[in-house]
Amino acid sequence: MLYPSLSQLLTQVNSRYLLVNIIAKRARELSAASERRGEPLSKKPVSHAIDEISRGEIRACVD
Length: 63
Description:
The protein has 63 residues and is mainly α. The chain has helices spanning 6-12, 16-37, 45-54.
């Protein structure tokens, strides 16, 4: 079982396609920032990005 579930994540972002793109972009940002600082991440960047979305820290901005 995945946590958080896809249905829970889709309450924050209403499109699966948009959700995947937001997760990927945020994971790349986290990875690059970690590399610049020279510090290892405590968990994988994708997992961290998913957690941020499930907590509502990241919102989709559609222009």
